[in-house]
Design goal:
It contains 4 helices and 6 strands. The longest helix is centred in the middle third of the chain and has 9 residues. By secondary structure, it is α/β, with parallel strands linked by helices. The chain has a domain of 75 residues: Ribosomal Protein L15, Chain: K, domain 2, CATH 3.100.10.
Length: 145
Amino acid sequence: MLVLNDLRDKPGSTKKYKRVGRGKHNSPGHGGKGQTARTGVALGNFQGGQTPIERRLPKHRSFYTGDRLATVSLTSIDRLIEAKRIDPSKEIVFETLKNLKVIKKVAKFKVVGSTVNKIIIEANGASKGALESIEKLSGKVNLKK
């Protein structure tokens, strides 16, 4: 026989509610407004009012301390030879490339790539492929120290 005082909800069908708003001051149990009320927000570099470490440390200049080498492609030198801006019978030196604005900021350069012209070039460095390409056409690379 069914009696009203024996009626119960099925197990798991009800949930206890969260008791909020008990306490003093701002917003107890409700969290803060604005940024802290949003999910997924971390207050980045905030260190409790202490100056953050990224502001305490000086900005670094660069990890590189040695002399920089500009890389000059032999195909770009070939184009300048075809445009008759470089004479292939004369030695190609740094000043020539600087005047033609092939090299802009640095004082040393290295040749890379391959060429189809016989050239004589004075450089601070050269790749293996560049050396083979120039010597195959009986050209010459003078490496400066």
